[in-house]
Amino acid sequence: MSASDKPASPLKSARLKIWRGTSRDNGRYEEFDVPFEDGDSVLDGLVRIRMQQQPDLAIRFSCFNANVCKECTMLIDGEVQYACIAKLHPGLIQLDPVPNLPVLRDLVTDSLSHKERF
Amino acid sequence: MDELIELATDVLVAGGGAAGMFAAVAAVRNGAKAILIDKNVIGRGGASIMAQMTCAAALGEAEPDDPQLHLADTLEAGRGLCNEDLAALLCEGAPQRIRELEAWKVNWARADDGKINQVKAPGHSRRRCVYVDFLSTGAAICAALRNKVSRNSDIRRLSNVSLTDVVTRDGEAIGVVGFDVESAAPIMIKAPAVVLALGGMTKMFKRTTSPNNLAGEGVGIALRAGARLIDLEFLQFYPNGHLAPRMVGLDPTTWEPTRVKLGGRLLNGNGEEFLQNYGEAQGERYSTTRDALTYAIYKEVESGRGSPHGGVYLSFQHIGESALRAALGPVIDIFKRNNIDLTRQPVEVFPIAHYQMGGVEVDTDMASCVPGLYAAGELAGGANGANRLSGNALPEALVFGERAGEKAARFAARRKSPAWDMSAALPQVELIRAVRGQNEGRGPSPAALMSEIKELMWHKVGPFRTAHALGEAHDRLCAMRERELPGAAVSRERVHNASLVEWFELRNGLLAAEALALSALNRRESRGAHQRDDFPETSAHYEKNQQLSLTNGKLVSSFEGVEA
Q1: Which residues contact B86 (CB under 8 A, 6 or more apart)?
Q2: How far apart are CA B13 and CA B34, in angstroms?
Q3: How crowded is the C-beta side of B488, counted as CA atoms within 13 Å?
């Protein structure tokens, strides 16, 4: 099958500094270098890390970069954003779980309605 | 904790998209209690919410129309393989479901005269497709249904629950097994009727419009439960999937409704129109069906006349900025955030895996050949034959979901409470416990295997196929299922263990992908979405549905006449 293997622009590199752990007190930051092309999202970077470096990294998402499921909310450089529309840029980007919700693990918080749980 | 969670209900619905939510609503209004589960979040996790534009229903608001005309168009697009009874059910049931959603506060776009707007999508003979502006149709439907299911105390909703198996006793469905994604605890749900609304397998392709959760698990689970599947070789590639420049924040299917609405021009790498070279009329005509459009784009690129990234151009440069703004509303700002200015530049598009026409073989009650097991939505095969019409996926989800819920509720009421068989359920429960932590730190991760499968399916099981490539794909998928999956490394972590989720996606999804490759190998002709470079003609001999079942761990296929 032809098409689409070429990147649209030369690859650049971002360094994602990601909170890893099961609460805000019990954990540490881990850093990952991710190659990207112009226009790639933070979610693209996180998926790449899961595929190639750290399959255990916990993140929530369902729709992919379409910004309809709204599951990928996180703190990106201190601002609440959707990872699927925030763009990667060269240099350091810090990712934390959203504030005001209990952390389950890594970037996943207890964000579901409790009526949809056991 | 991985202590077993035990639940019971009348109707268990798996999959929280439009079909599953409608099935739950219909089950309880027919007297049943229902549990609705989704691996992600109910009402947000499936493909339905990603649908941007068209939902076909012969309402006759924009111009005179009739469900029989909708049916004729659906059968024509299906290239001889539609189950006519199912297609008729879809077309006849669609108007009622659209009116019902309107009563549930879905704001269908309306014309100045107050009538519901209906547009003519490719392959339809009438202006028939309703929508919600701007490109929000699926999201609006899901919001209304999510509201509906959450207000009904007879529906228990469970998000972040992954289904792994349907439990059977003497060939009949008696419940399900799965696990809680949040805690890795196994879950066993006893239910006299089970509705699978888990969508298709388009996630298994590298270029896909699929959300992250359509790994073909419904296909794998149904096969292992003893259900027959049909026509898996027909997987629709959406012709104008976004290719370049990189765009996020919008579904890659954005361009087709935009092209049809505004009159975008498809051009090859030399800037020339080309559809007329593939039997289509020259100029701005938008009636070309998806299979034909995919064919034209593919062949143009194959002939060396592609765009820089290996697709074709779609240009709106002949359309004024104010007309673009009026038609696209806030969507134009999303393009801007991606540095796409349609008045100055074309975009590049190329086909992208979109929708699975085949699926579980069902009758008009949505019942599979396994008593107690129902399927609805994209997972139900038959209504769309070899090629689905634009706009038929949402009514299929709504109509079939409603039907499955009603029939499952009636079946559950009729059925004497089936004897539960712990010995049938326990091995599935034990598997969940055994897989967590298996080969930790050794072997490939499920994520890495998934990555390889997506490349493999894209390159060897795309819309243009040969026996050689399909055979290679089939053999590799078999090897992965038999050897690499058991050896894959799964984290011991309990909380949100993605490698556990992905291992079970692969357990069912690899079987689904293998079934697709085998079905494609067996159909030695070209028809609709299935094009064989080594058998380029459509053959009357193959005007048949291909049935597939799992017998003693092996996939067995046969061709049967098309049902009346």
Answers
A1: B362, B364, B380, B382, B383
A2: 7
A3: 27
What is the arithmetic mean of pLDDT over B111-122? Answer: 93
Chain B residues within an 8 Å CB radius of A87: 248
* C-alpha closest to that of B445 among A68, A56, A103: A56
B23-44 tens-digit pLDDT: 999 999 999 999 999 999 999 9
Cβ contacts of A6 on chain B, cutoff 8 Å: 308-310
Q: Which residues of chain A have pLDDT under 50?
A: 1
- In this prediction, residue A79 carries a pLDDT of 98
The residues facing B557 across adjacent strands are B548
Predicted pLDDT at A2: 52
The pair phi, psi for residue B293, each rounded to 5°, is -70, -45
Which pLDDT does position A17 carry in this prediction?
A: 98
* pLDDT surpassing 60 at residue B1: no
Question: Please, where are the H alpha helices in B364-421?
Answer: 393-414
ipTM attached to this prediction: 0.94
Q: Given the DSSP bridges, would you call strands B359-361 and B229-230 parallel, antiparallel or unpaired?
A: antiparallel
Closest Cα to residue B234, out of B544, B564, B450, B5? B544
- Residue B283: pLDDT over 70: no
- Give contacts of A69 with chain B, Cβ < 8 Å: 40-41, 44-45, 49, 211
pLDDT on residue A1: 47
The reply to whether residue B493 touches residue A66, judged by beta carbons under 8 angstroms, is no
Contacts of A37 in chain B (CB under 8 A): 246
Closest CA to B401 of B142, B59, B65: B142
Give the nearest partner residue to A69 out of B49, B451, B491, using CB atoms: B49
Average pLDDT over residues B343-357: 96
Tokens 């027909």 correspond to B234
Interchain proximity B246–A117, CB inside 8 Å: no
Task: Report how far residue B322's alpha carbon sits from residue B550's, in angstroms, rounded to the nearest whole number.
Answer: 57
Name the phi and psi angles at B234, rounded to 5.
-95, 100
CA distance B501 to A59: 12
Average pLDDT for chain B: 95
Q: Give the number of beta-carbon pairs within 8 Å between A and B.
A: 155
Give the residues across from B381 on adjacent strands.
B361
Q: What residues contact B291, with CB distance under 8 A and at least 6 apart?
A: B79, B236, B386, B387, B528, B529, B531
